[in-house]
Design a protein that fits this description.
Blueprint lengths: L2 H12 L15 E2 L6 H4 L1 E6 L7 E3 L4 E3 L2 E8 L7 E5 L7 E5 L14 E2 L5 E6 L10 E6 L5 E6 L2 H4 L8 E3 L2 E6 L9 E6 L5 E6 L14 E3 L2 E6 L9 E6 L4 E7 L13 E3 L2 E6 L9 E5 L6 E6 L4 E11 L2 E9 L8 E6 L4 E7 L13 E6 L2 E8 L9 E5 L2
Antiparallel strand pairs: 1-2, 2-30, 3-5, 4-5, 5-6, 6-7, 8-9, 9-10, 10-11, 12-13, 13-14, 14-15, 16-17, 17-18, 18-19, 20-21, 21-22, 22-23, 24-25, 25-26, 26-27, 28-29, 29-30
Length: 401
Amino acid sequence: MNRAIVVIAAFFSLIVTGCAQGPATSPPMHSAQGAVERNLTRYQVLNNFNGADEGAFPTGAITPWLKLLYGTASDGGQYGAGVIFRARPDGKDNYPLHYFDGKQEGCTPLGGVTFGNRSATFYGTTKSCGNSAKGGTIWSENASSRKFEVLHAFDLANDGGNPESPPVQIGETLYGTARNGGTHGKGTLYSIDMKTGAFTVAHAFGAGADAGYPSGGLVELGGKLYGTSYVGGSLRLGTVYEFDPKNGTEKVLHEFNGDDGERPTVGLLSWAGALYGVTPIGGERFAGTIFKIDPATGNETTLYNFGNEAFAPDGVPIAWKDALYGTTRRGGKGGKDFGTIFRYTPATNKFEELYAFGGKPDGAHPRGGLVFLNVDRQDQFFGSTYDGGKENLGTIFTMTP
């Protein structure tokens, strides 16, 4: 079969169709403990999103802070524009922290949250709304006081816009990416001075063979920032790029060629001096890859090609002990095609499917990856599914490794 036709078909098969301050006493989320037999599967649903008060369709990573879990739901809530939520790792007392108003605050928060350095304040973005340009917003909220603040509303033409990931803090500066707009129309890398609030476009993507449409977030390694882009490079199949905050320069480290993956949509993991990531398509079976990048040379190593049963990896992988853990949006044993949780051990090149999602009652199509947390001396992974679960609007889950 013509490779271009296969890739296009695979790409379209990946698409999943699919605010004001919350009340002083927020309605509890619906606990779902016992929905799946933990002693048999090691998997448990902690919460089923219900749309109206809790939100729906979580997409970003869940972030732990002081033994609690924070994240965003891209839809639903009081104004139908998305929700910031907080959950306990035992599935009790989960509730929404903030409802986006769909106007000045923005709408459709996709990327979850990141916490500041040694701070109770966390940060995130909305993909749309915010002002007349509807380019989205950057916002902050304090986990203790619940004070919510819009830090910036994007002007697509000048600032870029439609961010899909939260900013990260380096020193006294926030850095992040906007997927679209900017000078060359293919997104920007921005900074915000945390003392003055000044917003600066640090780099405009898309000139020539430069990276373009950065949808994943940034990760710091050795004082530099690294990310991925959906297009860019000589073949326009996506890149891994480097940005140096000290001198404001950006360069492409690696250009994907299809055989090693293509069209990355999530950011990178910094682990043991190297960068790790996934592509949702491309590779030997056109079903995605796990890759490793040497930040000093830009040399890429394709570690694993998806496609036997699990495919379309989504969410930044995490490292625990000697292995990488992550999720796929598609595939799964039994042919249900609701996605998987996987483990990959680089030293032995061993890939294991740890769990196959079933739609109801346990969720489907995870898009935010996993987060590790030790709870009561028990190592656990937590994550969310985009849909599935009791209401088919997504779940928060836990799994013991």
